[in-house]
Amino acid sequence: MTGTMLVVLGLWLVSLFLGLPLFAGLGLASFGFVWLSGIPLGIVAQKMAQAANSFPLLAAPLFILMGNVMNASGVTERIFGFAHAVVGWMRGGLCHANIVASVIFAGMSGSAVADAGGVGTIEIKAMRDAGYDVETAASVTAASATIGPIIPPSLPMVIYAVAADVSIGGLFLAGVIPGLMMAGALMAMVTVLARRRGLPRAPFGGPAAIWRAFASAALSLATPAILFGGMISGLFTPTEAAAVAAAYALLLGLVVYRTLPLAALPRLLAETVETTGVVLALLMTATALAWCLSLSRIPQMLGPAIVAAVDDPTLFLLAVNVLLLLVGTVMEAIAAMLVLVPILVPAAAGFGIDPVHFGLVFVLNLMIGTITPPVGVVLFVTARVAGLPFDRLSRAILPWLAPLVAVLLAVTLHPPLATWLPRLVLG
Domain range for residue 126? Predict the structure, then answer.
């Protein structure tokens, strides 16, 4: 069966270069393997159905719905206004506000694309109106959007936890410190560039202005505290937190702020279903192919082979970083995750690497991949929002990769940055 699977994987890679949709290629590869192996074709459909029948996976559409509702109801504008009041007086203040707003929004949406397409729209317009060049505005927005899936809640972490059978709560907690480190590193980069380029700053409005901005956004800013506090206290699970988040977003938009018309709900629900359908199709077909890989014993052979060849956990993690950063340049993050988890997770277990630490490193790598050309989905979204040609943004984003990669290396080489908080809270 190993030889059969290698042939099938080779044909699948060819199909990717020919432009076949990824979920279709994954599904056809699964059917091709079982057909060539003489296994009943119905087993593929069963594996796909089993993948979709997952309680933790319910969080995905609910987090997507919450992000759509918050964007449509103007919550993102209030968040950015508060961030600007707090740090806008610094040189390059709108860049700093962009990053702070991404940190706050990260505690709500859990999606880099939602950050770039939601609060990013407001951020880029404000920066251009203040005289920032469009490349700086777009590149800061794209780089800060990668914080979204690292600070909990996180849609990619939910997908990883389901695929790798890791605690969702543990992964969520593991992302807090690295996410704040990413924000700090990006703000340090802004400080250097602001002095070099003479970027503008806004006048300091004083405590009164900060208080007014906080009062306007207070209920929105409470979202991360409600979600995080509820999960830590055991009031609800991470999956149930997604339902609480979606309900709270609807409450703010429909009842409190009254900025979300009822007529907009069908469109928001349709967008949520569309996005969820794409994610679910990838998950179902990738799970079926992962089962085929397991049956062919390729992961079981690769895991020990990697352990024997590398012979050191740190070198293995560094090699995984290089691999995932390269994969992130040519493959969408969730798809890459679902394809590589069955191969790399057993190898990491063979080295005795903490599964939560490895999961955080895995997700962080792929989030950096969302802003690396030529297949950086966040770059595409940001370029569209900014009205900037993709090739120009691809060049402008390169310096902003340095602080993110520095944080990645720190987390890779010092596991307590990811594991200390989960162990403190969960034991």
Answer: 2-426
Q: What is the DSSP letter of 253?
A: I
Q: What is the Cα–Cα distance from 343 to 353, expressed in whole angstroms?
A: 15
The CA dihedral of 51, 55, 56, 58, to the nearest 10 degrees, is 90
Q: How far apart are CA 98 and CA 88, in angstroms?
A: 9
Q: Which letter, b or e, does each residue of 292-331 get, where b requires 16 or more Cβ atoms within 10 Å of its Cβ?
A: bbebbebbeebbeebbeebeebeebbebbbeebbebbeeb
Q: Residue 307 corresponds to which tokens in the numbers above?
A: 């352990």
Does the model's pTM come out above 0.70?
Answer: yes
Cα 226 to Cα 78, 157, 234, 276, 280: the distances in Å are 18, 19, 12, 24, 27
CA 402 to centroid of chain Cα atoms? 18
**Cβ pair 48, 284 in contact under 8 A:** yes
What DSSP designation does 351 have?
T
Token reading at 97: 């506000």
Q: Which amino acid is located at 291 in the chain?
A: W
Taking only the tens place, the pLDDT of each residue in 170-207 is 898 899 999 999 999 999 999 988 888 787 777 777 78
Rounded-to-integer distance, Cα 417 and Cα 16, Å: 37
Distant-in-sequence, close-in-space partners of 175: CB < 8 Å, separation ≥ 6: 149, 150, 151, 152, 154, 157, 360, 363, 418
Number of independent structural domains in the chain: 1
pLDDT-based confidence at 270, cuts 50/70/90?
A: confident
CB atoms within 10 A of CB 240: 16
Q: Look up residue 389 and give its two tokens.
A: 């040609």
Rounded to 10 deg, the angle between the 398-413 and 134-145 helix axes is 20
**Omega cis (within 30) before 61:** no
Question: From CA 297, how far away is CA 304, in angstroms rounded?
Answer: 12
